[in-house]
Design a protein that fits this description.
The complex is a heterodimer of chains A (389) and B (135).
Chain A lengths: L3 E8 L10 H16 L8 E5 L3 H4 L5 H8 L9 E4 L5 H14 L5 E9 L5 H8 L15 H16 L3 H15 L13 H6 L2 E4 L1 E2 L8 E10 H7 L4 E10 L14 H14 L8 E3 L5 H10 L8 H6 L16 H4 L4 H16 L13 E8 L4 E8 L3
Chain B lengths: L3 H5 L2 H6 L1 E5 L5 E2 L17 E5 L3 E10 L12 E8 L4 E7 L11 E11 L6 E9 L3
Parallel strand pairs in B: 6-8
Antiparallel strand pairs in B: 1-2, 1-3, 4-5, 4-7, 5-6, 7-8
Classes of the chains: A alpha/beta (389), B mainly beta (135).
């Protein structure tokens, strides 16, 4: 198996990008990444695009061909593949590119992730988001996407004594990080009390526990490590890629206070990298709701089960803490254009490992982890990146 | 967009809480599955219909304040994961009580109710909801 490197990254601002179309944001991120990697379109062997639901958000399917076309690559006839795994779509696109390079089939691959969510109204967006859950046995009974995470939060509170104040500390921390990220959707700090007082969406989760609706795109250029030095002085290596599945519906799981898919993907990835949680300098985790980040930092092994919430309130996951989590602002503050999210996490880790994360920089960061979740934990994907291995 | 066929084919199961019991390990599942996740191939052809009593306890609960369009009129409403007495868990609404009355451990039983409909003049869907079981 060949070693795989990342030699370029690009990302659009995340937010309500009403002036830009889906194709425009996809291409902007892609070109920024190509420029960063100092390669031309002739060098590209393949494209993978992470996108959850363009068919419903913008009435457009066949996103693979669309992106290749508008990137000016249709004349090169480069194969382009769209990948979907709910909220983990972007991460899955990265993983497909990883396979294609590790196998030796491709040398240089572009991975894009994009979603355009604000071309339609909020009500429809909520409906589409919930389609990553079980439409026949969950949403049909009136369950919304946030309500499923609220069920997990309520049970986590019941079993481990997790508090409202601790949930709010997750969002407050991610907003603080987001305030340092020029590409973030929310670049303003929010007081924990304001989070605890925001309108109830699905009790106990409130509006400021939830990631926003966002437009945005991100891209990375991946290549065979053997040729990476030709393009980049300090290529970042993908030292592990792992994925796991779980039941589609929440009622089928033995435990709803953990995401078993995250535990398994995290464990596999760390085994592949030959490291443990203590070796990781920073992580981007899937905080689509505050409770999701609490479960993620426990399931990935950064904290024992039931102690993730307290650790967050104690400041252990902030920039400068023991294990900085979501230095980009996470899904909560950077924004969550679904298909772009998993790729945006990789962009943040690469910038950190290059030492180019500016005010968010984690000193001497050498190993970073990215964790993406589809649905309520039905898919989980973990990548570990490193420099100076 | 009408979803009638997709709903109709599950009517019997949603009306009566019918799932399956694995003939190999006796585990019960709701909704029905063709294969037992624990027994795999051994369970093929042995997944027999199984009717749940509808009695159970609340495993976790929430009160929905931001609802999908067709449930707008009902909000705020209680949604819960219910652990049925036979073992499987099921998601459903809890009705006929204040939504904030619902608590983990509360005893409930299933009841037959209208779930929703396709637009103003479309097909009406029915199925289970749960009510508090008073001791």
């Amino acid at each position: 198996m060949k070693k795989v490197a990342i030699i370029g990254v690009g990302i659009t601002p995340f937010g309500e990008l009403w002036d830009d179309s889906f194709r425009e944001i996809g291409i902007k991120a892609g070109f920024e990444a190509l420029h960063d990697a100092n390669i031309s379109s002739d060098d590209i062997d393949a494209i993978y695009v992470g996108n959850m639901s363009a068919g419903r958000f913008i009435d457009q399917e066949h996103i693979g061909a669309l992106i290749a076309d508008y990137a000016g690559l249709a004349h090169n006839n480069i194969p382009s593949t769209r990948v979907e795994a709910g909220g983990a779509s972007g991460a899955l696109a990265v993983r497909q590119a990883y396979f294609s390079i590790a196998s030796g089939m491709n040398e240089i691959v572009v991975v894009g992730g994009a979603e355009k969510m604000t071309d339609i109204g909020d009500v429809e967006v909520n409906d589409i988001q919930s389609s990553a859950a079980d439409q026949e046995w969950e949403t049909v009974f009136g369950a919304t996407y946030p309500s499923l995470f609220a069920l997990m939060a309520r049970r986590h509170m019941h079993e481990y004594g997790t508090t409202r104040e601790q949930l709010s500390s997750v969002a407050a921390k991610n907003h603080r990080h987001g305030s340092l990220n020029p590409k973030a959707q929310f670049r303003r700090e929010i007081k924990p009390e304001a989070i605890s007082r925001s309108p109830v969406v699905s009790d106990p989760l409130r509006m400021l526990d939830c990631a926003p609706i966002s437009d945005g795109a991100a891209a990375v250029i991946m290549c065979d490590m053997g040729i990476a030095k030709k393009y980049s002085e300090h290529p970042v290596e993908v030292i592990a890629s792992a994925q796991a599945s779980d039941t589609l519906a929440l009622n089928q799981r033995k435990s709803i206070t953990e995401m078993l898919a995250t535990k398994i993907a995290g464990k596999k990835a760390m085994e592949m990298a030959g490291i443990g949680p203590a070796d990781i300098d920073l992580a981007e985790v899937h905080d689509n709701f505050t409770i999701s980040e609490i479960m993620a930092v426990e399931d990935l092994g950064f904290f024992p089960k039931g102690e993730g919430a307290k650790a967050t309130l104690d400041g252990k996951t902030t920039i400068g803490g023991d294990i900085p989590i979501n230095t980009s602002g996470g899904l909560k503050a950077r924004g969550d254009p679904i298909g772009a999210t998993g790729v945006a996490q990789i962009v943040e880790i690469v910038e950190q490992l290059r030492g180019k994360a500016d005010k968010r920089q984690i000193k001497d960061a050498k190993i970073g982890l990215a964790h993406s979740v589809g649905g309520t934990g039905s898919s989980a994907i973990v990548h570990i990146l490193g420099v100076g291995q | 967009m009408t979803k009638t066929p997709r709903f109709w084919r599950e009517n019997k199961n949603r009306y009566n809480l019918i799932g399956v019991k694995c003939g190999s390990c006796n585990a019960v599942y709701f909704p029905s599955r063709i294969i037992c996740p624990d027994c795999g191939r051994k369970s093929m052809g042995k997944m027999d219909k199984f009717k749940f009593s509808g009695r159970g306890t609340v495993y976790s609960n929430t009160v929905v304040h931001e609802a999908h369009e067709q449930y707008e009129m009902q909000k705020p409403y209680a949604i819960a994961l219910i652990e049925l007495e036979e073992g499987a868990r099921v998601l459903g609404q809890i009705v006929d009580c204040e939504p904030y009355e619902v608590q983990i451990g509360m005893k409930v039983k299933s009841t037959f109710r209208k779930l929703g409909q396709d637009g103003k003049s479309g097909t009406i869907y029915y199925g289970y909801k749960f009510v508090r079981e008073r001791e």
